[in-house]
Amino acid sequence: MNTGIPAIVFIAVLGLLGAGLYALLISRHLIKVVVALQILVKGAMLGLVLAGRASGQIETGQALALTVIVADTIVAVVGLALAVQIRRHFNTLDITKLTTLRR
Amino acid sequence: MASTLVLLAIGLPWLGALLVWAVRDQRPALQHALAVGFSLAAGVAALLLIPQAGTATVVDLPVGGSFGNFTFVADGLGVFLTAVATVVGSLAVIFSVDYMHGSEQLGRYYALVLFFIGAMVGLVLTSNMLLMFAFWEITALCSYALISFYNDDPKAVAGGIKALIITQFGGVGLLFGAVLLYAYTGSYDIHQFLQNPAAMPGNILGLMAFGFLAAAAAKSAQFPFQTWLPDAMEAPSPISALIHAATMVNAGVYLLARFYPAFSPVPGWTTAVMVVGMLSALMAAVMALVASDLKRTLAYSTVSQLGYMVYAVGAGGIFASQFHLFSHSIFKALLFLAAGAVIHGVGTRDMHQMGGLGKHMPLVRTVFVIGALALAGIPVLNGFWSKELVLEAGEHGGPMWIWAVMVFVAGLTALYTFRMVWMVFFGQMRGKLHVHDAGKAMKTAMVPLALASLVSWLLAGPFSAMLERTLPAHALHALSTGEMMMEVISNPFTLVALAAVVLGLAAWWWREKLAGLAQALQGLGRAAQNSFGLEDINRGIVRGTQQGAEALRVTQTGLLNWNVVGILIGLAVILVILVMGA
Fold this sequence. Notes:
The complex is a heterodimer of chains A (103) and B (582). Chain A has 103 residues and is mainly α.
């Protein structure tokens, strides 16, 4: 197998994680936050597959990645459902205004 | 046989607790009967267990994993405290039949009392350190729930929470010790550890020793943790008798006595134990001298007498400490039950309003005076013999100046005891109180305790023989009752201690002539009424915690982006640590 591929995948992992974290830091819109989380988790997933290959335990890495896919889907669904409810109750999706749990 | 009895002594009170709780509060007569029946049955099981005392593991429940085996050993120390907990406990339950008559929520009351007694039995019989910690915490929880039994009274709730928080400090010390024991020996077995304490490195053993000292001091209300016990007086009087005589505070002394062989070589430990005992005994005696609440006076006297027991353990007098614990649990249970009868009869705890009550409740007066004489250490009551043994152990095993302080405290004990008896039962009534005499169940509970205060010291011989036979690690030597008597009587220091007691009595007799001295000591009295500033320290800690929490509140912004920044910073820190460690 071409030795360049792991390097490319590694750069992709870093890129996805960086993009996800950056989006999570700057975005104020709840839907965008969910999207940013998705990007972040995709990076982590790819990282698991890469780690499995690097340590010679491809099956473990792939099994973990599959688990993450399932969990991540649930996160997305619940996050978006919450976003819908929040839009109905507070009439906003700006997360800086959602501070009723603070006190 | 022994294994069945061990399981019965723990299981019967717990089963009774479940049943009392299950019959609901609509049937109070059945609840009274169930509670008395199950506590008495547990007491009988505990008494039958005494001849079976031995060093062997009698119950071994494999739990697996890192919990080890849940083992129980019925040795002399455990069997003795089991008997104290269940017998004195069942007398407190019998007393409750009158005292709690017509109260609401009897189910909660009796269930907690029985659960408390069972947990105490488990605590003293188990030889698994982790299980011991579990029982230790159950007793703390029960004491909290019972102290704040009148949960619509804010003072009772505050007292209960205070007891819970302070004893938790001690619980942390015990858990710490248990985890260290497992980490270094791979087992929680107490007896293996006692036979070979050298398996632990010296500095770790020192950590354990002082952790256990903190645990014992918090549980037994010793300096500097003694403030919870007087506040626990908001509980119903039988609960005070239970906490002070049968369960709870005895656990700390038990812990020190149990682990004495392992910890005595730790440098400074025995001295620290003796100093803790001395400070508690002295401060509590002075506080008892100025208290005006009948139950608070008794609570301070408990702290003071527990100080004697802790001092005896520090001086190496394991038998003396346990013998004093035995005497104390009898006369203190008697004093608390009699005080409960007085409080129930007049409806106040303020001694300044009492006086001359002896005419109205002659039996209560008689038993209270017997208990008070034992507390003051007057021959030939049980308190005399055990206190002299404690002082003798201190004379052999500790520095002379601590011994001198303890003798002085013996004089103070006599002084505050007679002040209390006089203010309650003799002279003229100072307030306008309506008095009614104690009920039948109350008297049933008090009379056996009064008789036991007179004669329990005759058991010294068999008791010390049992301890010698079943505690090989403690290297005790048995004394027959006659030898014990000879040793006490022939010791010239006994006369010194007796002289201190008589001086204490004389100080009360000539209190008017000593008014000048009392004037001079007024500042000390005021400091004692403020519990020597320890309450201020407690309040300071509470205030500091609250202010710290308030100050930390600004970090809770509720903004997601800041939380993500926090996560990133945490990740960076972990990466840096990993890179530096690699």
